[in-house]
Amino acid sequence: MKKFIEGSYAIAEAVKLCKPGVISAYPITPQTHIVEGLAQLVADGELKAEFVNVESEHSAASTVLGAVATGVRAFTASSSQGLLLMAEVIFNIAGMRLPLVLACANRAVSAPINIWNDQQDVMAVRDSGWILFFAENNQDLIDLHLQGYRIAEDHDVMLPVMVNLDGYILTHGLEVVDMPSQELVDKFLPPYQPLYKLDPADPITLGCLAAPEHYMETRIAIQKTHESVLELIPKVCAEFKKVFGRESGGLIEAYRLEDANQVIVSMGSVVGTIKETVDDLRKEGKKVGALKLIAYRPFPKEALLNALKNIPEIAVVDKSISLGSNGVLYTDLTSIFLGQKKVPKISGFVIGLGGRDITKDSIRQVFDKLSGKQINCEFIDVKQELLEDKYGGR
Amino acid sequence: MAEDRILFDSGHTACGGCGQAIAARLVIEAAGENTIVANNTGCLEVFTTKYPETAWGVPFIHSLFENSAAVASGIESALKFLGKKEGINVICQAGDGGTADIGLQALSGMWERGHDILSVCYDNEAYMNTGIQRSGLTPFDTNTTTSPSGKQSFGNPKLKKPVPEIARAHGIPYVATASVAFSRDIEKKVKKATSIKGPKYIQIHVPCPLGWRHAGAETITVARAAVETGLYPIFEYENGELVSVQKIKPKPVEEYLKLQGRFKHVLNAPEQIKRIQEIANNNIKKYGLQL
Question: Which domains does chain A possess?
Answer without folding.
Answer: 2-244 (3.40.50.970), 252-388 (3.40.50.920)
